[in-house]
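Methods: example folding runs. The two proteins below were folded one after another, and each record is reproduced exactly as written to the output file, sequence line first and structure-token line second.
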Amino acid sequence: MGYNLSNTLLRHGRPWANLDFNTPVDHAYENNVDDVLAGWVRVPFDLPAFIILAVLDRDPALRSDLLGADTRLSAGILGNLERSISKFRRSGLSEKTLERTTDRQKAFAQLVTEYSTYLSAHQLLDDATILSNALSRDPRSKPNDTAYAILAAKPFVGLDGMYVSSICGKSSGAGNILRTTNTGNGKSEPTESEHVSVRYAIGQKAEASGVIEEVLSRGLCFDEVEIAYTNETGYLADLANISFWLPDAITFANGIPVTLTNPGRALLGYLQWISSGFDNRVLIRLLRSRTITLTTVSSFTKPEYAASNLEKFRAGSGTNELARVARIVEEQAGASASHGPAQPSLFDIPGKAERAIDLGRVLRTFVDYAPAESSVQLMSLVSGCKGFLKAFGPSRNTRDAVAMESIIQRLDTLETEDLVVSVKPAVDVLSAIIRSHKMSASVATPGTINVVPLDKAGCSGRSHVFVVGMDDETFPGRNADDYYLSLAGVAPAEAGAGTREVNEQAISRLIEDESIELVLVSQRADPADGSEVHPAPLLREFEQDPGRIDYSNSVASTVSVRPYSGVIAQYRNDDFIEVVQVAYPWLDSGKAAATARRSAKLTEYDGVLRQATPELSLSSRHNVVSASAMEGLAGCSYRYFLQRVLNVRLPEDPPDDYKWLSALQKGRLLHDLLYRYHSGHGSQKEEGEQRSERLHRILEKLIAKHAIKNPPHNAAGLASDKASLLLAAEIFLAADADISEEEPYALELKFGFDNYGKGEGPLKISLSADQTIMMRGAIDRVDRKGSDFSIWDYKSGSTYSFDSVPLREDVRHLQWALYAFAFEEILKRNGDEGSVIQSGYFFIGDRGNGQRVTDMPPGRSEIGERLRPLFEMVSHGTFVHAHREKSECRFCDFNPICGGENVLSGDLPELESPGERAAMAKNTARKWLSL
């Protein structure tokens, strides 16, 4: 805009030393608000929707006539009414326009009148009042200095146009109204556009990330680059997320969504809780996901502890349920003081009573900020939002702190309003406000990439402009019909330009401006749902007339963080297969494998070998297995074949600059932490606070040790993983305190290793007369109570695959039972007495929340008979990719190899090589999969 503006002034011979760059409304406000409106203030940006809500709440008949009896008030309806009223008041039309005959037209007229009356009574200035006041002034009192209106292609309408004409003269030819023109040839349709090129990408995310990749790969200076988005949804969030790993390198003209920050998500969660009628399942999710924090209100109560108690005491809907749970835990904590030794209490464990009392106080704090009635004063509702955000909104980084301040400042504009509104629609409007709220808006800054909406593109003088979102769903957009404006008789021309017209004008301006290199980016397919995505008609025109743009490299330069996306984007071309074969010749063998897998019969590519494989037998004394390998075989024989027979290894994940430890490294660190903690002296005699302090000291030492061996890329990655490890430590302490009568017997108990000839060798475990396995492994922890033993395997993940079926009934989980058998053998070998009464898994991470999944070990013969088909499958060379449920492949690391090719047990097809062995192999597989 600056470039075009200066050219326009030069062309007309006008100086710009004292240029006042402004909008008509702001110019009118600054130069024409006199004593008549002394003491009046501009209406807060978010208030109009609440004024309309209050009017409709107060007059049910008006609401019924305007919207219909059964229409529920929502943020969308209130927003439409607000825009309609604003446009009508700015159109400059007479009130007589609203004098219609139908009930709905009369209702709209009444709503506009009551809205205007409220503004006048409270001395609030909206744009229409400002412009009307400026137009009513005596012309002799208007400023003497010359004002120039620099207009876009479409003139102002309504009161805006009347005001511009009143100060600049009505003749655009002889007066002071200058219109900017583009610096190209001035035609609406350029004949040549070599400065324009097209890019295609696979998926919306690849558009944004690919633009950044092209900027970096081409070595473009950041302050020469501008990225424009046609649609805010998705694209702005993608670019904002990219700015996390390019700190201080990207500025946003319209700001970034506050919903990308922790405070924004926390406040939305709070509003969702209110809107749901205080369904406390919502609150539990917010606590478990740590969307909200408790550190501001309590240094003692953890979110997981609060969520667990709400679930334990079955908190239903309503704030009274929170008060009930608070009362229960407080009463139980108080009653524990009167229990003698013969009457042990749940809260006799040191620190538990204090923790329960603190939990009660925290739950009552939630109630304090919640609205108590179905209709409240707006200031009270907003005050509750602010209080909740300050108390429970996480602020984990600088961006969160900025978001917190920005949200509170916006809510401050509404906190003084005494309007009485219905809670649910008011909360809906507040949620829409938060979703649309932006922060960190900035002008184009030297040394940074500038991100703008399409209508502002090309105005900062950047030489390289990328436009993302050039598919036909987002560009040029649609002009939604304004029902209420049409009801009031306002023509589209009087309402001003719509989204479609604005976007078309903006893209035309960019195409005509030959001073910039313009890149138009569109996706060709959406990988999220596999749907087809069509480029905008403008790009299709370019495809049909390649001479208008440099199209030759558009696909080769396809933007994407993945190099193969450029090839995939050519899937429409007739020679696509040849292009793929030239680019990736090794894919031919993959194609042969894929063809075999798609065939109607099972082949060796499906894990069914051409001959028996006795050398792979699980009973072979030369084949030493681990419990995890057996569990992997039970979970998916095809994955076992890939991993243990073909020795396929997964590629290492590329290093993430914003993470420190991998999942495997973090799990090992947690295991080391718990081993050192339990190995310490007197761990069972310490008080709760002492145990916590010692565990934290050990963790700090381990983190420091690992940071030396594996230096973190930056402080953010270290802080994030450190917080996760601290959380896991707290979860472990809380869960481990529940077992007060048992004490650790063995930690990291290894068995079956040769230890360079000094060990006992693999441990022999007989399941039946003809089923024997040679095992080695390490049991994380064995607890003892008298002659009874409990075996625990630590898990740092979630309980997802353990929730549906008890351990004894789930053939996929074997480790708990095999470890019980192994420990019994160790006891026999050492001449010790005792028995394993339970074995299972202890989930110590933040996703498992300290849960334990356990059962009494089954008999060996029971497991042997259950595993017999599995033993036979391995001996037959049958490793079919078949499951009981397709969901079993959901989280498999080998999905890139075989994803989507599995079959259900009932659909198992015939083998490629028929015969007795093939029939036996198939029957055995079916028998195993039917368990």
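Second run, written to the same file directly after the first:
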Amino acid sequence: MGLGALLILISSYQLFFKASESSSGLKLGTLTSTLSVVKTKNALALDWRDASTGNDLTENQLIYTDSASSAEVLFTEGSALEIGENSLVKLKSADKEHSMDLSKGFIRAKLEGHRPLKVQMNGEDYLVTGNNADIQINLEDQKGEIGVLNGEIKVEKDGLSESLNPESALEISGESFKKKTIYFNAIKPLKSEVKYVLNSPTPVLFEWVPVEEAKVVISRKSTLEKPIIAQGVGTNSVNLSTGLYYFRIESEKGSSLLSSFKIVREVPPQLIRPLDGQEISVLEGEDQLLLQWRNPERLNYSLEWDDGELHSLQTGGESTIVEIIKGRPFKWRLKINSEKRPDAAWSEWQKIDVTFVPHPEIPSDLIPSGVEFQTYEKPNEKITLSWESDFPNEIEVRDPAGNVSSQKVKGNRFDYLGQLAGDYSWRVRAVDSHLRTSEWTEWATFKIEDLSDQKNVEGIQRVQLEKPDQRVTFNWEAKEGTESVFELAKDSGFKTVVKKVEVSKTEVQVSIPEVGAYYWRSRQYLPDGTFQISEPRRVIIEPTPAPQKPEKLPDLEVPLEEFPIKTTLLETFLNFLIPIAHADEVKGVVRLVLPVKEEAKSYIVKIYKDEKLSQLVYEEQLSGKDFVWRNAEAGVYYWQYAVIDFWDRTSLFSDPAKLTIKSEDVPAPVKPRLLSPIRAVEIEGPELVFRWRHSGPNINYQIEIAEKRNFKKILLQKESSINEVTFTDHKLASKLHFWRVRAFNKRREAILSNTGRFIIKPQLEKLIIADQFPAPWKKEWKNRSFLAWAPSMDSYTFEDGETGKIDGTAMMGAQLSGTIFKEKWVFNGELLRQTGEVFEGESYLFQRILFDAVKTLNTNHHHKLALGMAIGQSSGQAYDIGTDNVVTAESVSGPSYGPIFRNYLVINEKWEMQGKLLYLLGDIKQMEIGADLIRQQASYMLLGGVGYTSREYEINSGKQSSIKISLGIGKEF
């Protein structure tokens, strides 16, 4: 927020108050190097932009770096600037002088020949000249210095002049300056050095000459505020955590120039895609996979991928394409490749499930084929063409005149209008979303016979139904403005009419009572009262042919899942309240999908242990194509299936195919290798960080800390899914301690690491203070959960013709809630269910599941104000009253969302209060306010609270108000 305000102020100042300065596009130099995100802004621009190597710099250009970035500038005349972290510089030109306005930061400059450099600091101009000299300039809060790294320079200001060399510097404070002696030269760390480390805190060696007694003043700010002080004779080592540091060597004889260095923890590169467990689709024939990662530092990387064989590649980009082979597993990882980063860490292996997208298959089952259609009118027949395909399709139709028409079709049917008598042919091919096409099908044929010149002849139609309840379409021609009556009868004399429908259009869809032969006709009633009757036409309704023996299933290999299948939401909730034992009696679960195209009412699946089909181990009639085989064992089986069509006719069973059930081999856990701390290293500070080497078979770890090597008394214990654990405010004694790591695989089999040792270094100053003044108690916010009885008194008002009111009590109310505390965020979840009886015996139900994330607005350890958003699902009952004063209830359910305000207040070590205010939108609008009082016991927490809720239901004018109390018990984790 502070950075944004600073940039806005600078932008406004430059735009409105410095408009008179030169704003031409004169090129002053070029950005030759950028580390991380460097921002630049042109003279009259309102926005800051990310800079990159090679960008031109013009008059009045602003350059900004934060604590993680830096930049290098080469002027057109050859001089150079190194702009360090936390700097803000404006480049200018004045006659033949290079000029810059330094608002804050750390600058190193190379003077080209005798060409001067004009530097403006605190509103004052300093003219710096020197022959190929290297200089250093820093400024923070109007205090800074100009020093010499190599050569000699002269600094002029307001007619005053000072000569400087590596043994002197100019100290600046506001508008004044004075010359001082530079006595020490800092050898280590190197100026602007970046130290990449695996462990933090890490020892940093400081060396200086002359080798004399001096102190090292170290700080995170260039003004050296809140310093760390270390004494030594020419050298000293200080344990420091990651970050940017400034330091100076000082004694009574003088000091060194201010210098800086940075400590950065080695972390694996940030991978983008594909990530572990992702399913990636690859087009068959292309066989290439794109790997991507982030590269903000523009480094070189080592890439490894394994598809049964290990491959490697050196690259400097942010992505690469690798060849993959169908049927092989694939995984990949990445690490930084740099001589300056020997400890660079590999990322975790990313195991990818690759699915090869096959070419679209040729459509099948073309209907009609070899069928003849008869018409007693001029040919204008609508023929429904259908086929089986899992893709969009392209259809071609060739009419009797030889004309070919083409059409793109999304579904599996197309209505074609035949306007010529004669032979037609048609074919189809599939087109997938990647515009790949299958081969064309063979030509299918149908014929339209024109019988319009024949009189009083029964036209015969044949209709085949896939399902008994399938509707049949009849259509005819009629003059405009007529009304029609459709008649369907068992006899040609229409004495037994089974369907009679009056319509104002020329088409009707009816369901036929049963299969058989029928006659149909239409009556057209003219506006003058007369009517005309069409010639009767015979239609034969019959089922489609009985299902044939289906094709053989493919040979499949599927995994055996060792754990039970997923439970329902209710079972999961009950298991949370009352945990169940691990279901060892379940041998295994196999999930299968029939890989067939036939659509049917149901399928019969049989699985046998032997190829002769004598040992049946599974039989099931399925309503769909997917099923679960429970209590299965690994091995080789044979399976087949039969089809039951919608007329309940069963086909023969298909020929048996091989089904291989393969059990997953779970490798044993691998012994973790401890990395740090080891060998009794001394550690100071309230934060302990433990690291060890990760191995693929290990999915979880448990770290244990004890005072003795036998670990009989565990002082600290924590579980982690990664190979690092941090303890804060551990309160361990200042002595030797032992630690080890227990690794688990998927089956929770465990193995212990070797034993590491570390020493808690005493904090002398803190001990003295503690002896004199006891440390104040500080609240430690831990994750918590509560289960509470939540009865309520409810009042429901509604208006439907007259005003009414329902009052009731929801005694059966329960609420389960949980809270996770982070440094600046709080995450909450709650499940509320209330039931009861209300006016005239109507039942009452309200339930809600709600999740919210709120961000704390203050930093008080004993008080958290937080604001955020909530989302969930609510359901309840809205009531109406009829004219007969009968009350009816209608269920309402839908998503809920809206803002939420939470307040957490610690009264003392035993008591605290938490409150909430929320407003939810959705099908049930809700406003709720509540407060809970919590009592902290030795191992659990007691809760009591009150709340008020107002709800409005969208489906009517009903409004509900509820007063709730809460009595519960909870625990911190």
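Comment on the second run: Residues 198 and 266 are 5 Å apart (CA to CA).
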